[in-house]
Give the backbone structure.
Amino acid sequence: MKKLVYQDQVFALVGSIGSPTNAAVYKVLDEAKVPLLGMGTGSPIFYRPTLRYVFPAWPLYTTDGKTMGAFAKQRFANQSVAIIYQDDAFGKPIRDGILSQIGKAEMEIPYVPSQVDFSSAVIKMVMRSRIGCVLSKICSKWLLSSTFIEWRRRTLRD
């Protein structure tokens, strides 16, 4: 990054993706007054008023969570909620946004980004809750879980 800024003298960086990627470079760019535009991240660390050259395009992850929570509260009123969230700076703000809307979750199930087997989490959720707010990063793995598929079939028949 320093080569791009100080040797190549880039004017701006546009459309970089991911919280870790942007977290690695945003301070250098902001200090060098090189705009970081249209970042694909909603991490709260990029929304500080002191960052004059950092312009995220994504809403705060907390806002995403509030939207999910408001939907769950309205659509599934009086049903318990299980929140499955990525246990890091990406998932925790989304979880917090969900909780700000629903008050409390019957279950909170954290996972790590490298996790591929969600069967125990699916079983826990199925046994105790009627719905789950699922974060987009794991949706495909979660929804393709054979345990979840069988539970969904039973739920749709009931």
In short: Strands lie at 13-14, 36-39, 54-56, 81-86, 107-111, 131-134.
